[in-house]
Specification:
12-stranded antiparallel β-barrel; mainly beta
Length: 264
């Protein structure tokens, strides 16, 4: 009887030892999580800056000109929203003491980009502006197309955009105009040093209904960083309209010197 009791105790002890050594089953979800790589973190990027310039003359020449621009953008993974605004206002006094407005223009733009690949995106934008000295009470419309960042090597960055633009012109003197244009945009940036950057933009809008009607817009800028948040910028822009409002000149230029502040 004693031998049977000892045998029973031995069997129970061995069974308990094997039960303790047997690992608990691993859930299937945990096995899959251990094999698959962790998902990439969500990328969210904010960017915002603003610039301002001023020219004040008194004495024999009396005039005041103020200019400003701003940008805010938000990128989340493959989607990006950008808002831009710029404007210039100036008044001048003649020899008889009569003051008139000689510069008055502004433009806003809201743009959406959807990145199909890292360098390639589709875009759509809406724009609204005014330029009374050039003969426009208001200009508004939209554009869309493809954007391709085709050269990003070291200090160099280049991209082009192709698409279509619609612009409605409400002129200071009738008739108003609807303009349907093909659009080509080129941009080049060169980071010459960590504190000095050169940029060149070129835009061509050609009327698909009138081959003589085309517009060229260029912007050349040199930006020098004064600190992490503040920079000094010199820029020169040209606006050329081959078929301007009757009685107006074809070419407008703007030279600006001012400060640019990065908020984000």
């Amino acid at each position: 009887m004693r031998d049977w009791a000892l045998a029973l105790i031995f069997i129970l002890g061995v069974g308990t030892a094997f039960a303790q050594e047997t690992p608990a089953p691993v859930p299937v979800a945990a096995e899959v999580a251990a094999v698959l790589p962790a998902p990439p973190p969500k990328v969210e990027t904010w960017k915002a800056n603003a610039g301002a310039s001023a020219i004040l003359n008194t004495g024999n020449s009396s005039n005041q000109t103020l200019g400003g621009n701003g940008l805010a953008s938000y990128k989340h993974e493959r989607d990006k929203m950008t808002f831009k605004a710029n404007g210039t206002y100036g008044r001048a006094e003649d020899s008889l003491g009569v003051t008139t407005t000689n510069t008055k223009n502004w433009r806003t733009e809201l743009r959406y980009d959807r990145y199909l690949l890292d360098p390639l995106s589709t875009f759509a934008l809406g724009h609204l502006g005014s330029d009374e000295p050039a003969g426009f009470d208001h200009r508004y419309g939209g554009a869309g197309g493809l954007s391709h960042e085709f050269y990003k090597t070291g200090p160099h960055f280049s991209k082009y955009e192709v698409g279509f633009d619609y612009t409605r012109e409400l002129r200071t003197a009738p008739p108003d105009e609807n303009i349907y244009s093909g659009r080509l945009f080129l941009q080049y940036k060169l980071t010459m040093t960590p504190w000095l950057t050169f940029g060149q933009d070129f835009e061509n809008l050609f009327n698909v209904q009138d081959g003589h009607d085309y517009r060229l817009n260029t912007l050349t800028a040199l930006t020098t960083k004064m600190s992490d948040k503040i920079a000094f910028q010199v820029s020169f822009s040209v606006k050329f309209d081959n078929v301007p409002v009757p009685g107006k000149k074809k070419t407008d230029t703007l030279t600006q010197l001012g400060l640019v502040v990065d908020f984000m």
